[in-house]
Amino acid sequence: MDRKATAAGMTRVEEVDRLVGDSGFLRYHAEYVKRRQFNAFDVLRYAEYEIRHSNVMAWLLDPNETHGIGRAFLEWFLGQAKLPGRLPRKIVRGEGGQTVRVERELYYVDVVIFLESDHARHIVAIENKPAWASPEHYEQVRAHLERLRPEYSGHDIHCVLLSTSREGIDGEDEIAHVSWRDVGAQIKTMHDADAFWQEEVAAFIRQYLVAVGRLIGPEESDADYLRKLLDDHHSLLKYMLGVLGDEGGEQEIRAMVPKRHADTVVRLVKDFGQEPERLRSEVRDLLASRGIETTITASKGKAVLWLSWDLQEAQGLGLGGTGGRIYWFFEFTLRSVVVVLESSPGRRDAVDRIAACMRKIPVDRCRRGRYPMKAGAFNHFHFYRHELVGDETLSGTSTAAVTVAVRQAVDEFLDAEDSDYTRINDYFRCLAFQPAPVAEETK
């Protein structure tokens, strides 16, 4: 490695100054510092689970709960929803001796709010989808409405889809939409205004806001800032990666940069060395050695890479249609290696039948959080999603150590008798089982 080469004739000191002054680096530094702070959601690994966010939403919406904010969040949410049929302001404000009751998972609805007073009786049914809004989500909300109507005929029922999209889908005027981005902003506004006056509650809210930030992710316009940061400073980071591999290399890098940024720069150099392309190639070779043929894809211009292969056990399930298939894929980023089971657009009725069966008879009752059972972008359907290798492993001290850890994790996922891979493949083998006709002489 030529350590004398610099970018555009700049000295190494100038390159370092350019790096630490980059707005992308300052954002990376802020996120790195935040990641190193204690967060109970990270310890419990609850931050990514839909059910946990529904629990917090139900808690905030209930004026009688322990958050100490009374009706403040409830009234904001009802106003934000702009509910079709217009929930009267006196109902939003709780006039007329109103009582409020909040239920979870009532008739499969994530959160149900009962608003009952001398004026009227109302129900607000909330479907929580920590993903982009899709037509499938609205269909699910309509199904909730059909279940609730005969049970609560004396109530006016309003439905809300809560998703990470900024706006709902055009034409879906009968179902209100609220964005998780607005929810997060409102919770932060209330926290900054000391609405959560109890310190224990305020501390919980601060940690929860971090979890919400990860749920919604960055805006589309700056979703790939890290890839741009690595590309813009490739020369310097390549040099530092070579230094890092030498004895005492980490201390040499620390001596090159301002002390307040030393930890962050070392971490950035490690991120630079753990390229998703390299890990994808390693995993692809591993799968090939097992006879699994894979397809490589990437999101154009983005730091996300995929490696996919068909779920053979799903053949014969009637997906049909152009490109209709169920397949596994690994998703490689600088932060994680995630394994997903997904269906591409095909026969919607076949996907619905499979999803209905998996909801009624779960693949694994103890790990329901790994089975989102929801529509994703571009009409794809997600059956299963799990982070196989996380940030704590990918930030290892060497490229070799990370490679070994990733290969070991993939090996265990593919081989273990009790692994999700084995369990799901067996489940689909049973779904697709079609016994041959019994011969007349054996009847």
Describe this structure in words.
The chain has 443 residues and is an alpha+beta fold. It has 18 helices and eleven strands. The chain has helices at 12-20, 23-36, 40-44, 50-61, 72-81, 89-92, 135-151, 180-192, 199-216, 225-232, 234-244, 249-256, 262-273, 276-288, 348-360, 391-394, 399-415, 420-431; strands at 99-106, 109-116, 121-129, 156-163, 176-179, 295-298, 305-310, 326-332, 337-343, 374-375, 381-389. The strands form two sheets. It has a six-stranded antiparallel beta sheet. Strands 1-2-3-4-5 form a five-stranded mixed beta sheet, with helices on both faces. Helix 7 (135-151) links the parallel strand 3 and strand 4 (156-163). The radius of gyration is 25 Å and the shape is globular. The termini are far apart.
Query: What structural category characterises the helix and strand content?
Result: alpha+beta
Shape, principal axes of CA atoms: globular
Give the termini separation.
75 Å
Number of strands: 11
Q: Are there runs of 5+ residues with pLDDT below 50, and where?
A: 1-5
* Element order: H for helix, E for strand: HHHHHHEEEHEEHHHHHHHEEEEHEEHHH
The largest sheet has its strands arranged as: 6-7-8-9-11-10
Largest sheet, in brief, is: 6 strands, antiparallel
Q: Bin the strand percentage.
A: 15-25%
Whole-angstrom Rg = 25 Å
Helix content: 40-55%
Mean pLDDT: 82
The number of helical elements comes to 18
Attribute tags:
single chain, 443 residues, alpha+beta, 16% strand
Write a compact overview of the structure shown:
This protein has 443 residues and is of the alpha+beta class. The chain is built from 18 helices and 11 strands.
